[in-house]
Amino acid sequence: MNSTLNITVTDQNELKTGLAKYILELYGDYKIILCDAPMGAGKTTLIKEFCTVLGSTDNFSSPTYSIVNEYTYPGGKIYHFDLYRLKNKEELLDLGIEEYLDSGHYCIFEWPELVIDMIKIRYKKIEIEVNGNIRYLRIINK
Ligand SMILES: Nc1ncnc2c1ncn2[C@@H]1O[C@H](COP(=O)(O)OP(=O)(O)OP(=O)(O)O)[C@@H](O)[C@H]1O
Ligand SMILES: [Mg+2]
Question: Which atom of ligand 1 is least distant from the CA of 82?
Fold first, then answer.
């Protein structure tokens, strides 16, 4: 069954003081996480905090141009995707998306629309709505 939890974030620092950890661990150990939100809503910011929670000390950056960044953490690897610039599923397949999804490592997506149909296991989806400085997060397990 799908579950949904709504969280209001009024200050970005809340993510650092336990909220990112809470969201990451909510519903269980889901390795595939989709961040579905408009431009500038805070997807990269949230994913950076997830990486910190996982104990990654690698250099973190937005994969807007690289499409996928790979980080390590004590438990394995984190693949951080930004699919914004991809036009179709062929480009996603060319990237080797199936191997990434099957790898068992974390696969965390910004602009996830193209990949949704290719996910064969349960995943966590985070939607973000912005109103001024307030972020409304909706965390769904699918
Ligand atoms: N929870 C938050 N509260 C307030 N500001 C935030 C929050 N999260 C992120 N921001 C700010 O919003 C801006 C955009 O954040 P970020 O780059 O993470 O968005 P994004 O969704 O990844 O953008 P893009 O669509 O370009 O990939 C940054 O200046 C960041 O500091
Ligand atoms: Mg981003």
Answer: 27
Sheet arrangement for strand 124-131: 3-9, 134-141, 124-131, 32-36, 106-110, 76-82, 68-73
What is the SS3 assignment for 39-72?
A: CCCCHHHHHHHHHHHCCCCCCCCCCCCCCEEEEE
What's the pLDDT at 2?
85
The predicted pLDDT at position 70 comes to 98
Q: Domain segments of the chain: what residues?
A: 3-141
**Could you tell me if the CB of 32 is within 6 A of ligand 1?**
no
pLDDT beyond 90 at 96: yes
Q: What's the CATH code, domain 3-141? A: 3.40.50.300
Task: Find the 82 Cα to ligand 2 centroid distance in Å.
Answer: 7
